[in-house]
Recover the amino acids of this structure.
């Protein structure tokens, strides 16, 4: 199972660096990342990591709040115009609603959906 971790960091200088140091110190690699600040003093960060349990322990020890864990689909995607549209259209035509999307290392697409099993069957 591949898991996306949703974290909430203070929206201030150095917090993303702190996150990187915490995970790096316990040898957890960040395979994908999306960080968004939408005001209110808090930034939402989505992480795809190679060792979920180790990451959770390290984040907890550093008092970094993990808001959610959700299973995701990670697929290779071509780095070319229209590639995202093709994938999203296949899911949409199958009635799957995409809830989260971001790119990970190695030109991979990370997706959460309202029907993950159907998304997997459509994409494989």
């Amino acid at each position: 199972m591949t898991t996306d971790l949703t974290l909430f960091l203070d929206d201030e200088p150095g917090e993303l660096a702190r996150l990187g140091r915490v995970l790096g110190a316990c040898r957890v690699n960040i395979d994908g990342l999306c960080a968004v600040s939408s005001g209110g003093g808090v930034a939402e960060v989505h992480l795809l990591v190679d060792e979920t349990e180790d990451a959770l322990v390290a984040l907890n020890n550093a008092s970094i709040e993990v808001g959610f864990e959700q299973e995701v689909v990670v697929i290779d995607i071509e780095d070319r115009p229209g590639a995202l549209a093709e994938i999203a259209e296949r899911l949409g035509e199958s009635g799957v609603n995409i809830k989260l999307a971001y790119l990970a290392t190695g030109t991979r697409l990370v997706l959460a959906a309202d029907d993950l099993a159907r998304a997997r069957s459509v994409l494989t």
Q: What stands out?
A: Helices lie at 15-25, 52-61, 83-93, 116-123. The first helix runs from residue 15 to 25.
